[in-house]
Amino acid sequence: MQDLQNTNQANSSGAALNLFLPAMSKALITSFSKKLIAWHGLHGRAGLPWQNNLDPYAVWVSEIMLQQTQVATVLERYPRFMKRFPTVKQLAAASMDEVMAEWAGLGYYSRARNLHACAVQVVERFAGKFPNDPVLLEQLKGIGRSTAGAIAAFAFHVRAPILDANVKRVLARIFAIEDPIEEKAVNDRLWNLAGELLPSQAKDMPTYTQALMDFGATWCTSRGPVCLSNNHQCPFSKDCQANLSDQVLILPRKRIKAKSPEFNCDMLLMRSGNWVLLQKRPSKAIWGGLWSLPESSWSARAGARTNDLQSQELFALTLPDSLAPQSLKTTEPLKRGPQIKHVFTHRRLWMQIWELSVAKPIEWGDADLQWVSLRQLGQYGLPQPIKVLLQGLSLIRDGV
Ligand code: SF4
Q1: Using 50, 70 and 90 to split pLDDT, how confident is the model at 123?
Q2: What is the pLDDT of residue 36?
Q3: Which of 29, 65, 212, 324 is the most exposed place for a label (fewest CB within 10 A)?
Q4: Element housing 369 (H / E)
Q5: Helix (H, G, I), strand (E, B) or coil at 158
């Protein structure tokens, strides 16, 4: 067991924390974990397949999958992933394509690439055993400081704090932290506060950490915290500064965001009988490592494309320069397909699909450009909107 709440990562001093907190909050710091653990006994989530598990591999997979994915989806996909890759060694030995295919549909594909890279690191650097020190865990691919804290707390009972978006919201409300939480100084202070709030007994760390996650996700929610309804009595209602000062829906404050930029691109859906042309995306791009339709570079959106394209123009836009598909014999003219809008976290993309049938697949001589049989399409890791498109065109079915 370790006590890592005051590692060198917590770069605010105790004095800074005292300046940061009003005097009336200090009594709450000592009672916070007890109140939260008591709340969890009555209202926390129980029976989730990754709970009460001391296997750091299982904890790690669940923590990564739960980032940006709803619990209901994880409940369906987590058992499947664990069945497919039951140990960190089996995950490390799998190909990236196998991992991407298993992850398809969960979104935020850098998580899958990082899972695979991290598994390789654990095998190569730690002989297949996850370290219990959150500082070492944080050095692994795709594991941030909060996830490192969660793995250390759940699997090794280490006194390490977590600070995800839900926890930031809870702390900002209870302790009336009024500055935007994206600011580095505020973030540093929140980490320090999260460390101060830990239970004194290491054995309580799994329950406390789960309770903090559950409280933020189910009771002190962003839009409907329980103190604004008459359904439940929040255990912190008499201490919570946001509640006492009527600022519950105002805190935490966020920086005002600029509008997400929008982009257009053209996509080539080329078929030849029961084959469709797919291109593997570069690993560092959006949907990196997944297989998609060949696409043009993105341009700033200026309304929908109104002009029609000729097939040679489209080839020049979507296929690598080195390939010269003049010899392709089309069986029908290029057809304008649907336009699909996809919203990413920080941008929106409008994809204009162009459908083309050719007499026979030609050999491209490029490993990242492949004709894939329709029967095997379901085994490829595809971006979700492309998968939905191909399903809509009856080219792919789930489980095929
Ligand atoms: S009183 Fe409201 S805002 Fe404060 S912790 Fe409870 S649910 Fe959250």
Answers
A1: very high
A2: 97
A3: 324
A4: strand 369-373
A5: coil
124 is catalytic: no
Q: Which amino acid is at 158?
A: V
Mutation test residue for ligand 1: of 167, 230, 234, 245, the one with most atoms within 8 Å of CB:
234
- The pTM assigned to this predicted structure is 0.69
CB of 252 closer than 6 A to ligand 1?
no
Determine the pLDDT at residue 301.
84
Separation in Å, CA 363 to CA 276, 325, 366, 367, 382: 13, 10, 8, 10, 22
CA distance 81 to 101: 11
Residue 400 confidence (pLDDT): 37
Looking from the CA of residue 237, the nearest atom of ligand 1 is: 1
Domains and CATH numbers, the chain: 2-244 (1.10.340.30), 262-392 (3.90.79.10)
Pocket probe for ligand 1: among 171, 214, 236, the residue whose CB has the most ligand atoms within 8 Å is 236
Residue in 121, 160, 152 with CA at minimum distance from that of residue 56: 152
The tokens of 25 are what?
Answer: 């909050």
